[in-house]
Amino acid sequence: MILSRRPDIERFLGHPDPNVRAALIYGRDRQVVRDRAVALAAKVVPRPDDPFDVTRLNDGDLDGDGGRLEGELTALSMMGGRRLVWLRLAAEKGPLDRQASDILASHVAGNLNPDCFFLIEGGNLGRESLLRKGAEKAPGAAVIPCYEDEAGDTARLVREILTRDRIAIETAAVELFVSRLPHERGVARQEAERLALYLGPGRTSPVTSAELEPFLGVE
User: Fold this and answer.
1) Could you read off the pLDDT of 43-98 as tens digits, one per residue?
2) Which of 102, 126, 144, 191 is the most exposed place for a label (fewest CB within 10 A)?
3) Signed CA dihedral, 4, 179, 39, 124: sign only
4) Which whole-number Å values give the CA distances from 173 to 103, 195, 211, in the listed order?
5) pTM for the full predicted model
6) Could you tell me whether strands 141-146 and 22-27 are parallel, antiparallel, or unpaired per DSSP bridges?
7) Taking the CA atoms of the chain, what radius of gyration do you get in angstroms?
8) pLDDT tens for each residue of 168-177
9) Whole-number Cα distances in Å, 41 to 13, 139, 152
10) 3-class DSSP state for residue 125?
């Protein structure tokens, strides 16, 4: 199951299909990938930071230990209930890509612990990736490709960050600010948080474009 439309992605992240045992979230913008993985993990298990029911792995954990991943997906919860195995891959090709693909296929086929959810964060996986191809074909897996944020996505992010500090901002000011930001979400988030510090919490009136000029260096 490939989810590429925003409404479908948000629906799945909010209410994961109980028949789905694995999810591959990948893309060039690793911050978007991470944000969506965090959102999904919070719906899969009650406490994503619980070391008893959640196992976090990366490339280094699998390198030289071919049975580690399968062992974690086979293990049962110590307290009963659902487990989460959360794999973050930096490599986009090679043995780990094949290993993750083979184990994902075995897991969604029901050969491992059916009460375990397999969540994978990947990089910019190309069409030649065995993991991507395998996940796209697997009936019990969800695949979420993450593309660069568009202006509307970045504007929503900026508003969310400013709202946390009770800072209102005019639409024109948001558009001006967003026009100066890169498409990479991690950098955009940092700049929006820096703007919130600059403006200060709590505003009795919305921030205007003119008020942003000193911050942006607009003459």
Assistant:
1) 999 999 988 899 999 988 888 777 899 999 999 887 777 899 999 998 666 788 89
2) 126
3) positive
4) 49, 12, 9
5) 0.76
6) parallel
7) 20
8) 999 999 999 8
9) 9, 20, 25
10) coil
